[in-house]
Amino acid sequence: MHREYRCLFIILLLLITMPLSVHAQVQNQTETIEQDETTAPERVDVEPVANDAQIRERLARILTATEWFEDPQVEVNDGVVFLSGSTKTNDHKRWAGDLARNTQDVTAVVNRIEILDPDIWNYQPAFTGLQELWRNIMSAIPFLIFGIVVLVIFWGISVLVAKGARSYLAKRLINDLLQDIAARGIAFVVFLLGIYIVFHVADLTNVALTILGGTGLLGIVLGIAFRDITENFLASIFLSVQNPFHAGDHVDINGNSGFVQRLTIRATLLMTLDGNHLQIPNSTVYKSSILNYTSNPNQRISFVIGIGYDASVTSAQDLASKIFEEHPAILREPEPLVLVDKLASSTINLMFYIWVDGSKHNVLKVKSSALRQIKTAYLAEGISMPDDARERVFIDGLTLQSRKETGASDVKTPESIPLAEDSKLVTKAEGQLESNDEEILEQARTSRSPEEGDDLLKPKK
Hints:
Elements: H1 2-37, H2 52-66, E1 69-77, E2 80-87, H3 90-101, E3 108-111, E4 114-115, H4 124-171, H5 176-201, H6 205-225, H7 227-242, E5 250-253, E6 256-263, E7 267-272, E8 277-281, H8 282-287, E9 290-292, E10 298-307, H9 313-326, E11 337-343, E12 348-357, H10 363-380, H11 419-422, H12 437-446
Parallel strand pairs: 2-3, 2-4
Antiparallel strand pairs: 1-2, 5-6, 5-9, 6-7, 7-8, 10-12, 11-12
Helix pairs in contact: 1-4, 4-5, 5-6, 9-10
């Protein structure tokens, strides 16, 4: 509401200054009239044939009647008029010369009227200006009261219209941000109508249209100057309408993974998996690929294990499938897959695909548990898992020793490897395989949010 109050204050200032502008127009018209008054008539007739005495008397009476001249004197000799005296302005002197020149039977004019120097200590112009200003202010009070009343009425109407628009849009389940924008737009149009009425009554319709045109032009200029801000604002509207994610969803935006916290008119706030707040501009969010892990809680994870060429691929596949069937965190549907991926230089690479409910279990913990159990089962069944083939060059040669000369105690058998511990479903390090999303979300709820503003997101269902 503070923005509306500031707009109302600006409008009131315009109403206060409008009478002054009207007065300026009236003053300009008055000056024009005065300039017209200082324009001498084209011709002044005295009699069909005027002599010098008649011309002198006629001109002297006119100069005296104007009260613009001090000690005006007129001399006429054979139709030549000699003017003398003093006046305050050059316009009055020129007016007297034109008057004499346009008089009947005047052949020439000699204008000797002097211009009086203004008194530097004369405060009369200042007093006159203050009086004019005071009269303008007093005359503007009725119009100011009328303008305030009209604006207050239309302000109240705009508020009621805005509430009605919000109520109507809320029934249609329109987004909160769109409700606010539409309601404010309708209210602004209603209030703008009140402003137009005030200007129209003041006979300043052209001024009102000029202000509206200037406002539109100013909007274009500001839109170009604040392009990024405008782009983020529009992106926030589109995101709130399309709803690609909700509050609390685990998403990946432009390579940034985390839980969505807020969506404001400027940025989208994430709580990363490291526990840090990350603000991404809405324009970047709208134009980027958004990977939502929460929309479908079932997630597929994959990993590769290489077995030796001397091992049975079918046995390795069956053994892994049995482990997946007995594992409580691995889903049966979609079914797990164990496929031959590649015949490498020293191993047969098997690709394992398993599905995990991410809302219940941590995919990283489940992957660790599956890898550990498969490794233990393969070793127990004698399925070799050699490393990649390497070539090593011995420059000084190599001395070979027969197997018989090697002590029996130096040979390790599979039974000497502690397989019992690795065969457990879960270990202490893996916990209970449960998801820790709630822990991260709880950290986000208790942490200080760096982004201010209304949240435009819908809560997570």
